[in-house]
Design goal:
14% of the residues lie in helices and 54% in strands. About 10% of the residues have low confidence. The strands form 2 sheets. It has an 8-stranded antiparallel β-barrel with strand order 3-4-5-6-7-8-9-11. It has a two-stranded antiparallel sheet with strand order 1-2. The chain is mainly β and 246 residues long. The longest helix has 22 residues.
C-alpha cells in the first residue's frame, strides 16, 4: 500500500465515522426521514457539556519526509508512528475554548544503503496549544500548534561494522481536525470517548548527525567516512486518535 492510498483510506474512515455519528444523533420527522438538528437550534449549555476539561488521546500518524537525509532509511519517504497527547481546557467563552497540554510521538523506519542495513528511530516531545469551536451533534473542530524538541538515532550496519549517529532538532507541528463524540451529546457521562482525526504539516530544523564508529578500522568505517547527509523531519501527515475526556 503506497502513501497516497493509506492517506485516502484513513481519511475515508474518518469521514465514515463522522457520518455514522451524525446519523445516530439525527431526529426522525413525522414521515420517518432522519433530519439532523440544525446548528442554530442547539442549546449552548448542552454543547458546552461536551467540551472536555481533560482529554487523553492515543493513536497513530502517517506522513511523508522528503529530506535527503531520510532517504537511506526509507525507500518510499513514508513515516509512521504512535502519538500520545494530554490536554486541559484553560479558557472558554461561548462556543470557543482554548486548551494546552503536552504530546509525545515516536516513529521508526528501516532501509538499506550501499549494501548496509539502516535503521532510524525518532521521538518528539512538544507543548500543545489548541483552539476549539463547539458545534451541535458532538462535533468540535480544532486547530493545533505544537512546538517541540525531536531526537533521532540512526545506525548503518553491513555485518562487519556498525556506524551510529544521533541528532537533535527543534520542531513545529501545525494541524487542523475535529473531535467527534462517540455517543449522544445529551448523555450525562463523566467520561466520554472521542475520535479525533487531524491533518497537518511537520517541520524541523536540519542537522548533520554526529557519527560514532564502533570500530574505526572496520570496512564500513573506512568506506563511509565520518559524516551522514543533513537530516530534517518535514512534510505533511495524517493522524487519528481515540481519546477519553473528563
Amino acid at each position: 500500500m503506497n502513501f497516497r492510498t493509506l492517506l485516502l483510506s484513513l481519511a475515508g474512515a474518518a469521514i465514515t465515522v463522522g457520518l455514522l455519528t451524525k446519523l445516530a444523533h439525527a431526529e426522525p420527522t413525522s414521515d420517518g426521514v432522519l433530519v439532523a438538528e440544525p446548528a442554530g437550534g442547539s442549546n449552548l449549555a448542552v454543547r458546552q457539556g461536551t467540551d472536555p476539561f481533560l482529554r487523553f488521546s492515543l493513536g497513530g500518524r502517517v506522513g511523508r519526509n522528503s529530506s535527503a537525509g531520510y532517504d537511506p532509511f526509507s525507500a518510499t519517504d513514508t513515516t509512521g508512528g504512535i502519538e500520545l497527547v494530554a490536554t486541559a481546557r484553560l479558557y472558554r467563552r461561548g462556543p470557543f475554548s482554548l486548551a494546552a497540554g503536552l504530546s509525545y510521538d515516536a516513529s521508526g523506519s528501516t532501509g538499506s544503503a550501499r549494501g548496509a542495513t539502516t535503521q532510524l528511530a525518532a521521538s518528539r516531545f512538544a507543548a500543545v496549544a489548541e483552539g476549539r469551536y463547539l458545534l451541535t451533534g458532538g462535533f468540535v473542530p480544532l486547530v493545533r500548534l505544537a512546538p517541540g524538541l525531536l531526537g533521532a538515532a540512526q545506525s548503518l550496519s553491513d555485518g562487519s561494522a556498525t556506524l551510529r549517529a544521533t541528532s537533535t532538532h527543534l520542531s513545529l507541528d501545525g494541524s487542523v481536525g475535529t473531535g467527534i463524540l462517540l455517543g449522544s451529546p445529551d448523555a450525562k457521562h463523566r467520561v466520554r470517548a472521542w475520535f479525533v482525526p487531524r491533518i497537518g504539516y511537520a517541520w524541523s530544523t536540519a542537522r548533520t548527525p554526529k557519527v560514532a564508529i564502533e570500530d574505526p578500522n572496520a570496512i564500513l568505517g573506512q568506506n563511509s567516512g565520518r559524516t551522514l547527509p543533513s537530516l530534517a523531519f518535514r512534510g505533511p501527515y495524517l493522524a487519528a486518535q481515540v481519546a477519553l475526556a473528563f
